[in-house]
Design brief:
single chain, alpha+beta, Phosphorylase Kinase, domain 1, Transferase(Phosphotransferase), domain 1, 3 domains, two-stranded antiparallel sheet, globular, Protein kinase C theta type-like, transferase, serine/threonine-protein kinase
Length: 451
């Protein structure tokens, strides 16, 4: 399929070159005729002023010829580079989703979107070109049912992919007119693509965009979030706490080993999939590139789950996630948060005291929580020590858990697309034209969407 896309693009580029050459020959012929007439007229005048004008005219003609030649060479380089890539004779830093990015780009331009920086190909895009997005990249391929999440970013909707009726979650993010918003969208797309190799991080099926919104098609976690479980059940059974938190440990260690700090861990962002396994989601404010001793600073996260160093605007790294992890563990074990949240960061910091541990909580869990909820970030478990070796997880077989061979203690109710009623998704009020977000279009190569 990728080969056919490349061949198709080569044909389009060849057609572009032919059009440019015909136009160039026509302009050249007209220029020569004008030049002959101009020279005949100029020869009749011998003044110094007229000679200077003729010299400037000749220089402009040469410059135009040079520009036309460069334009043709630029297009020819585009075709030759595609051919070299196909043969494998020249290595270029291109991702396997480049053909999809190209299709999405042309589709976006033809629909009236702004492509950002102009290129010779962009301004010559033929208006008659019939570009059709692959089904996963077309919003018309999805049926919407209900809103399952909201935030400052936009909303998450339950939907299904029409060709297969597979349930999915679609995250819609508004493309605000500022560069930081666009970079956050690109960053989330990068993290989601990388997350495919971890079973406990939410996986993307596709990503695409309209003129005003970006869309992430994600796997649907039918078990809901840990927050919904707390609201429904209060505290959770010990075995479920061990199982869920052990899978979160694997997911966090995967993210941290790839230089990613989540920065907004909370029960709302920990989902349970149809098989009963954990999925860490929502990377909208995550930080990238935090390897080794590299730190970041800045207030981020949800009140009640933010680490002391975050509240004080000090530098921090993955240790902030381990603090949030400790807060989540305490909450699902007791049904309550260990610390009082506050809209004021400094006030929230002073509200952090040693939490009270109920009598029914095991000594092992109390010990683990005390080491996770350590105010000194350098002494906090996760940053220091091996959390997998803690006595609370003595019964966890980590190799089996990583391969999802351990039976989950709870399995959610199975639902299908026929169990929901279709609705029309909300249309953004602001429909002003936005630029296209680069490096966004994506379809998971392991997603069997054509079945």
């Amino acid at each position: 399929m990728e080969e056919s896309r490349i061949r198709s693009r080569e044909k389009e580029l060849q057609r572009h070159i032919s059009c440019v050459e015909e136009e160039k020959d026509k302009i050249k012929k007209e220029s020569q005729e004008v030049l002959v007439r101009s020279k005949s007229h100029v020869e009749e005048k011998t003044s110094d002023e007229e000679k200077k004008k003729r010299k400037r005219s000749d220089e402009n003609t040469d410059a135009n010829k040079k520009l036309n030649l460069e334009d043709k060479e630029s297009l020819q380089r585009g075709v030759s580079e595609e051919q070299e890539d196909k043969k494998g004779n020249k290595k270029r830093p291109r991702s396997p989703e480049d053909p999809l990015e190209a299709i999405d780009y042309i589709y976006f331009i033809l629909k009236g979107g702004s492509g950002g920086k102009k290129s010779c190909l962009e301004v010559r895009e033929p208006a008659h070109l019939d570009v059709k997005r692959p089904a996963p990249l077309d919003i018309q391929s999805y049926t919407f049912y209900k809103v399952i999440g909201r935030g400052s970013f936009g909303q998450v909707m339950l939907a299904s992919f029409k060709p297969t009726k597979q349930l999915v979650a679609i995250k819609k993010v508004s493309k605000k007119i500022n560069e930081s918003n666009y970079e956050n969208i690109r960053k989330e797309a990068r993290i989601l693509k990388m997350a495919r190799s971890c079973p406990f991080v939410c996986h993307p099926y596709a990503a695409f965009q309209s003129e005003v919104e970006a869309f992430f098609v994600l796997e649907y976690a039918s078990g809901g979030s840990l927050y919904s479980m707390i609201c429904k059940e209060g505290k959770l059974p010990v075995e479920r706490i061990k199982f869920y938190t052990a899978e979160i440990v694997i997911g966090l260690q995967f993210l941290h080993s790839n230089g990613i700090v989540h920065r907004d861990l909370k029960p709302d962002n920990i989902l349970v999939d149809k098989d009963g396994h954990i999925k860490i989601c929502d990377f909208g404010i995550s930080a990238e590139g935090l390897f080794g001793r590299k730190m970041i600073c800045g207030l981020a996260g949800t009140p009640g789950y933010r680490a002391p160093e975050v509240l004080l605007l000090n530098e921090y790294n993955a240790g902030a996630d381990w603090w949030s992890f400790g807060v989540i563990m305490y909450e699902i074990a007791t049904g309550e948060q260990p610390f009082s949240p506050s809209g004021c960061a400094l006030r929230e910091y002073f509200l952090i005291k040693t939490p009270e541990y109920p009598s029914y909580m095991s000594k092992e869990m109390q010990d683990l929580l005390s080491k996770l909820l350590e105010k000194n970030k350098k002494k906090r478990l996760g940053v220091k020590g091996k959390i997998r070796e803690h006595p609370l997880y003595a019964t966890i077989k980590w190799n089996e858990l990583e391969e999802k061979r351990m039976m989950p203690p709870f399995q959610p109710e199975m639902k299908s697309a026929d169990d929901f009623n279709e609705i029309s998704p909300e249309v953004p009020v602001d429909t002003s034209r936005r630029e296209r977000v680069e490096e966004l279009s994506y379809v998971d190569p392991t997603w069997h969407w054509q079945e």
